[in-house]
Amino acid sequence: MSLTDTPDTGTTRAALPSPTGRRATRATRARSWAPYLFISPFYVLFLLFMVVPITIGAFLSMTSWAGVGNPEWVGLDNYARLFDDPSFYTALFNTAVFTVGTMCVVLPLSLMIALALNARGLRFRDFFRTVFFLPVVVSPIVVALVFGLFFDQQFGLVNGLTQATLGSPGIAWLTSPFWAKAVVIILVLWRWTGYLTMFFLAGLQNVAHELHEAAQIDGAGPIRGFWSVTLPQLRPVTAFIGVTVLVSTAQIFEEPFLLTQGGPGEATMSVAQFIYRAAFQRQELGYASAAGVVMFVVVFALGRIAIRVFGAGENR
Amino acid sequence: MSGPSRRRFLGLMGGMGMLATGGCVTAAPADPVTDGAVGLRLWTHDPSYTATFQAALGDRSIMRGSAYAPSLEVTAAAGGDLLTRTITQFMADGSPPDLLGVIISEFPRVMKGDLAESLFLDLTEIAEPFGDDLLRRGPYSLNGRLYGLDSDTSISVLYYRPEEFDRAGLPADAATWDEMLEIGGRLHQATGKSIGMVSNGDNTSLYNTYLQSLIQRGGSPFDAEGNLTIDTDESVEALDLIQRGVANGAFLVVGDPYGAAAGAAIKSGLLVALTMPSWYRVYGLEANAPEQAGQWRLRTLPRFDGGGHIASNLGGTGFTVSAVNPGREAALDLLRRVYLTPEGQLLRFRTGGFLPTLRSLYAEPDFTSFRDEFLGGQQSFLEYARAAEDLPEFFLSENNEALTVAIGAPMLGLYDGDLTPAQVIREATDSYRRQVRS
């Protein structure tokens, strides 16, 4: 609908408005633009930083492009190549391992820590909270360096301890495909468990005491109280954490990249790292975009499934 | 209410988006500045290069007769990021840095498509008069054209601690690797110490372990056309040396040869010798174990029985000149003066410890008279000169990264004795072909 042919302005094309009428029309027009002006920052930013990159990414995924010059249109070749690339499946598998491994541990672990921090009479509560939160604000570069030192096969602290106490031979933490994955998961847990604990803690502090008291009156012990009162009350928080962890771990990049650079071989390469490698180490931006589009679809689908499974956004 | 329709509003937003993206076009090369004052943008990861270029600007022996009066605006960033930023800058407004230092492991990225030709000036002509005297052309060449001048020859030699060998009653001057491995094995049995290190860390470190050995043996991962050339006898012998060295303890397996693990091995005295490039003396030995000053020496490498060279190569940073900036001729002039003149090469050595890339300079008194205090006052150029005379040449390819990934895991199998050298080559070749084909 245009500005001039709207029926509610009280003017027609045939009759020229008087000066007063023109001023009124201009004022009406200005007023009609005002709401769009106020909401435009969001749309401008959304357009520039979401719609444009996603559209260009989708377009590039159907081209061959090294970074300069004109992209060459290749249709769906990049996708065909991607689904025939063993490295991509390796990256998918690794990412699935990281995601499942993290999900299975981080949810119960952060809940347990939150329960401990929420215990009555706990001293130094703020100190513990700070300590558990600290890993998430430490630079990932520093974290990777420290973990590299901890898990070094020859000179690492972990092997030093196990050899001194158990006399066991050192484990090839970062050079065995199995253990390297395990160390990446340990690193993810170390970084994010404390952060997620804060959400559970906030949720626990919102559980009404009356509910626990009522359960006690009904004869429920601490375990029954946990299963019948605490857990159901924490469902929205659990759903939020579950969806967040799932989506963010499915896009994991920093931890394996800084700790092992995806090695040994491709044993810890994630999908995000596969994309990075194609784009910024091999200059195959079209191919990387295709992998990015596939990753977007997979993460979006996983996110939707997780929202459904965890019941995120539903009323209690 | 009268007002813009939702469709019109979104159309406006779309138009703005198109304008924004339309701004990201590649500009045509601007006319070059031909003389006078010119500001040059230098991007590098290493402050030593900055110091070198800045010192050159104030050195009349280097700048004499130049038509330009350049000034430098320096941007320092991580080596891996510089090239990405350069490409982004080129695409955004067509003005990449005038002088860019590209780490050797990053250079294969510009071998893709027409990146090198689009971004960098062809330096073949200014290098031509030097013929074979100019070292380290291969890694920065593409289709026979040269796009980068290396800052350092990065000659790999054997660093060793003579007192440790004397104490064990073993010689440190073995002529071949077979002899050296036997000495290393005996030293390891007697003292637990090692005479070399190999990496089992990330893929790049694993690849470098192989590459340094392969190049010394006379091989190259790729030929001048970028074809994979690892399925050779040289490759088998290089891997065999590594495997035997690890098996008898002569070589210590270290996660990060440039990081804390290697530092601990050096500082604790576990490593009494190692094969590393010239820059490792500063960044590896002296930085980690300054208290060992005077205890180390260097020598050329023991030979392989089957042939090869008495030196190898590892690392390096090639400097390139923008192909499109107005200051490109001034940048080329500065690069030529600092990198291709005896005065410039001497300045680079004095400022950053970079070995000359002109072979003939290794016999010049300015260099041969230099005594390295960390190496007990040794005249290191007497050894470097021999190495420079026998320096191997090698080439890279746009698929270098694929080979880095391909050889990582099989190398671990080699250390463990699970794979023979031939199997490592076969597995790496198969993996490489899969990656390059797919």
Report on this structure.
The complex is a heterodimer of chains A (316) and B (438). With 316 residues, chain A is mostly helical. Chain A has 2 domains: 7-60, no CATH class; 81-310, Orthogonal Bundle (MetI-like fold), CATH 1.10.3720.10. Chain A has helices spanning 19-60, 77-82, 86-117, 125-137, 140-150, 157-165, 177-205, 209-217, 222-233, 235-250, 254-259, 271-281, 285-310; strands at 63-64, 72-73. A two-stranded antiparallel sheet of chain A has the order 1-2. In chain A, β1 and β2 form a beta hairpin. Chain B is an alpha/beta fold. Chain B has 2 domains: 36-153 and 315-363, Periplasmic binding protein-like II (D-Maltodextrin-Binding Protein, domain 2, 3-Layer(aba) Sandwich), CATH 3.40.190.10; 155-313 and 393-437, 3-Layer(aba) Sandwich (D-Maltodextrin-Binding Protein, domain 2), CATH 3.40.190. A 5-stranded mixed β-sheet of chain B has the order 2-1-3-13-6. In chain B, strands 7, 10, 11 and 12 form a 4-stranded antiparallel β-sheet that branches. Chain B starts with 5 loop residues before the first helix and ends with a helix. The model of chain B has no long low-confidence stretch (mean pLDDT 92). In chain B, α17 runs antiparallel to α18 (421-437). Chains A and B meet through α1, α5 and α12 of A and α1, α4, α5, α9 and β9 of B.
State which percent range the strand residues of chain B make up: 5-15%
Mean pLDDT of chain A: 88
* Residues in helices of chain A, as a percent range: over 70%
Please describe the biggest sheet of chain A, giving its number of strands, its sense, and whether it closes into a barrel.
Answer: 2 strands, antiparallel
Greatest interface (CB-CB under 8 A), with counts per chain: A-B, 55 and 56 residues
State the CATH topology of the largest domain in chain A.
MetI-like fold
Element pattern of chain A in H and E: HEEHHHHHHHHHHHH
Strand tally of chain A, please?
A: 2
Per CATH, the architecture of the largest domain in chain A is Orthogonal Bundle
**Within the largest sheet of chain B, what's the order of strands?**
2-1-3-13-6
